[in-house]
Sequence to fold (493 residues):
Amino acid sequence: MLSDVTDRRPMAQDADAALLGELARLLGPRGYTDDRADLEPWLVDWRGRVRGEALALLSPADAEEVAAIVRLAAAARMPIVPQGGNTSMVAGATPPADGRALILSLRRMRAIRAISPLDGVAIVEAGVPLSALHDAAEAQGMRFPLSLAAKGSATIGGLISTNAGGTQVLRFGPMRALVLGLEAVLPDGSRFDGLSALRKDNRGYDLRQLLSGAEGTLGIVTAAALRLVPAVAARGVAWVGLETPEQALDLLRRLEAATGSAVESFEIVPADGLALVLRHIPATRAPLAGRHRWNVLVESVAPAGAEDPRVALEQALVAAIEDGVAADAVVAASESQAEALWKLRETMSEAERADGMAAKHDVSVPVSAMPGFIESARAAVEARFAGARVLAFGHLGDGNVHFNVRPPAGTPNGAWLAEHGDAVSRHVHDLTVAAGGSISAEHGIGQTKLAEYARLGDPVRLAAQRAIKHALDPLGLMNPGKLVPLAPGEAAP
Ligand code: MLT
Ligand code: ZN
Fold:
């Protein structure tokens, strides 16, 4: 006889308790905790906007244990939320509100299994922090050419699963361009061993690419073979003041021509963004004497034996100033000066967060259209939402800026955003789509962009993504509620 819903609930709870018991036995005290204090930091997203709940935090020691966890969870129909450094901008690693989920952290899997300068490859486990890979590659005369502000806590698994961008995409592409091979556990518990890091492999659908940027919805990345490039011997880092984003893009093309495409980073920061950093971040100071409507941070590099990259950079900047493309510039004379300039860019988000909440957007349009978009979209948003203050900064060379909208000065941020935040975001996203762009250039969809993705995503693309999700994860247990919007009328699994 079928029991009714109220009868079934205790049975379901018994089944969940049995699963937790099995997991605790499998993983031992180092790999299993359901202590609320241990779980707490992992229940809230980095921006502090989305809170979830979970039954336990699992930290397996190896891929074998990951596979065992996935099989047990699948048998119990228990959702799994994989987590890296928990620095997602879109709450992509935050567990669901109903709390019936397990957080899976790969933080104990942090071996750098091999670094081969000859192959230009590093084999690393998913829990390795990005900065640890940087250090290990450097010790072998190589480097991993992807960097971002959260490098101390962001992990390789999280970077792959979110197809992270950062400040070197201009030259090397985003994370997926650096993934040569993957090892992963698929939703049925099977283990995919694709670590062989072949430079050429043309056997059809590419699992490595499917899992990159999948936000943990198709399986758990446990290790990766990553592309390394030779270490640089020297870098030139400059801070430039100029008047318009058009000038900035013009400057980028000039610098690329002058340096033989050695420009790796080209980041734009508006005057009020720099002001926020100087106000909120200790030990920062204005790099140029005057105030400039726009600033650019540029880095170019040179291999061993080549001329100091600062020479070409400085010459090109002098010419740009003479031609009226830039107003002022400073080239870092030492590594500590270079670090100080980078700090002004890398702490932008932190400074903005310290100043109060904003409606954040991460948009891309074709590179050539970005300068016009920044100015026209700012004017449109500020005209429609009286007093709103647009702060657009970031990766101009990639056609990607963080187009954030701050409430009017003196307004309680929370109340203003509660009233206008969704309308602001819809407006920004409509303008982006009208310009042929993407509403998520590098942060992913996660939870916070899901509704907008459902509203604006190309239906053919959405249908194909759902089909892939259903094919690989028919039970819908891998990071549910993220990335893949439900079809109209479709019930959540
Ligand atoms: C950045 O470029 O600084 C990051 O993507 C963070 C952000 O968007 O706030
Ligand atoms: Zn960014």
About this structure: The mean pLDDT is 95.
